[in-house]
Amino acid sequence: MERDQIKWFGISLLILAVLAYLADFNKLIQSLRSAKPSYIILALIFGILPLFVWGFSWYRFVNKVGLKISYRKILPIYLASNFMNAITPLGQFGGEPFMAYILSKNTELPYEKAFPAVLSADMINYIPRITLGLTGTVFLVTSTKQTQLLEQLMITAITIATIGTVLTYLLWFKTTKVEKTILYTVKKITATTGKGKNIEEKIKEKMEGLKTAFQSIGENPKHLLTTATTVHLAPIFNIIVLYLILLSLGITPNILILVFILPLTSISNISPTPGAAGAYEAVMTTLLTTLLPIGLSQALATSIIFRFTTYGPGLTIGYLSLAKIQASK
């Protein structure tokens, strides 16, 4: 596992090195130095705020599945698990089982309930990317000349959004059908292979707990709606961060374009690099140079500062939270 982590960290650094080379390293350094510190400090403050919003999402769902815990107590656990998830390959995409394991190990919540809570929180947290992404898409389609790259990114974003929406609906509101489908598939596999009968029984037992948790989450649409509305604050804070960074470099962008750029940049989270490092900067840099009158060095500088002010605080605060949790055991 450590060797895989080193490999993917190396790939992240390689991508960043190539980007720096293409942008002209000297121009990149000049762009970074030209950023006004006052704007960067403000960006750093707003970059920290989404962590507390996403922690609130965890708080809402963890309590919904049966664990009575305060926001103050659940927040450090979220921050610690987010840190561990961020430094693990594939953490930004499909890291829910890993985060659920950390949650269950640090609370009295069994894994069968922790996983639905974490997965549901991630689903809710993704909704703003869909709504804001569609808003930005409408603006760009009606006011900006389309390129093949933009069209491909739009199609990818819509595909991911559609799959996520269908999956969310099925898990929250058609839980019994999902359970029956999974158990039927497992039964067919064990009948065909003649193996795995014990595994089939274990899956059936686990599925009952998962079904109960997902049903408890989906039984109150008002709870889902209020949570989904609240978590829109997180991407709004990130849009403000990106806006402030561009201002620090002497660029005044149309904010509606930024509404489009950030949701599309999140597609890079499917990258296997830790925290999508390298891939995230590459996608954001490409979008910035495509949609704004901005040079490659300024675009890459913007991407690097954005990650410093948004991703960086999560790592720092998450590490401190993890150390605190381990020290309290």
Task: Outline the fold blueprint.
Elements: H1 2-23, H2 25-34, H3 37-64, H4 71-86, H5 96-105, H6 111-143, H7 148-173, H8 175-193, H9 197-218, H10 221-230, H11 233-248, H12 255-265, H13 279-291, H14 296-328
- Report the principal-axis shape: globular
State the share of residues found in helices, binned by percent: over 70%
The number of E-state strands comes to: 0
| Broad structural category | mainly alpha
Q: How many strands, what sense, and barrel or not for the largest sheet? A: none
Q: Quick gist of this model?
A:
The protein has helices at 2-23, 25-34, 37-64, 71-86, 96-105, 111-143, 148-173, 175-193, 197-218, 221-230, 233-248, 255-265, 279-291, 296-328.
Give an account of the 3D structure.
With 329 residues, the chain is mainly α. The protein has one domain. The chain is built from 14 helices and no strands. The protein has helices spanning 2-23, 25-34, 37-64, 71-86, 96-105, 111-143, 148-173, 175-193, 197-218, 221-230, 233-248, 255-265, 279-291, 296-328. The longest helix has 33 residues, at 111-143. The protein is globular and about 60 Å long. The relative contact order is 0.17. The model has no long low-confidence stretch (mean pLDDT 82).
